[in-house]
Amino acid sequence: MADPKKPRSKAKARTPLDAEVRATPMSPKETTLTHLDAEGRARMVDVAEKPVTVRVATAHATLRMEPSTLRAILDGKTPKGDVLAVARVAGIQAAKRTPDLIPLCHAIALTGVEVEFAPDADGVRLHVRTRVRACDRTGVEMEALVAASLAALTVYDMVKAVDRGMTVEHLGVQEKSGGRSGHWRRD
Q1: DSSP label of 63
Q2: Domain annotation for the chain: domains and CATH numbers
Q3: Known catalytic membership, residue 136
Q4: What span, in angstroms and rounded, lies between the C-alpha atoms of 131 and 17?
Q5: Whole-number pLDDT of residue 152
Q6: Buried-state track 159-177, b at ≥16 Cβ within 10 A, e below 16
Q7: Of 93, 102, 140, 162, which has the maximum CB count within 10 A?
Q8: What are the tens digits of pLDDT across the range 83-115?
Q9: What is the signed CA dihedral for 71, 74, 80, 82, rounded to 10 degrees?
Q10: Are the C-beta atoms of residues 183 and 24 closer than 8 Å to each other?
Q11: Among the options 18, 120, 157, 163, which is catalytic?
């Protein structure tokens, strides 16, 4: 948990989906690579002794595209139909399938997954924000990241025929809470 006496840094919101965000540095113990055994071999961490707590994580990805592509997505006028509806379902499905995609992730009974989209005022970026929640012994950061990345990749897939130069940028965890390390927000 963060020291309540220590002032937290404030950062300007980077996207319409970002709130004020802050970061709390990790202690040396928390930076130990727990997915490696004493000989440096990969292992799945045993979380049996950890308490069950509410775990929440949000992640973000950004797509950069031509203004006409973003307009077509927002107006629902693309050759493959409602891009954001399909991408939302892809993000939700991806969060649920994270342990099938990331080898050392635990299977977690997710209690909620949200996928939101917001165009940037610049007219060339679409922001993807995911929020994943569970009551479990381990965090849901990977589920939030996988959801954001697959939602963004689905947008790309559905409009790549009209904008091959589109890019997916800035994938990252924005915030997490629950567990021993407590609450963390990105600067």
Answers
A1: E
A2: 28-185 (3.30.70.640)
A3: no
A4: 11
A5: 98
A6: beebbeebebebeebbbbb
A7: 140
A8: 999 999 999 999 999 999 999 999 999 999 999
A9: -170
A10: yes
A11: 157
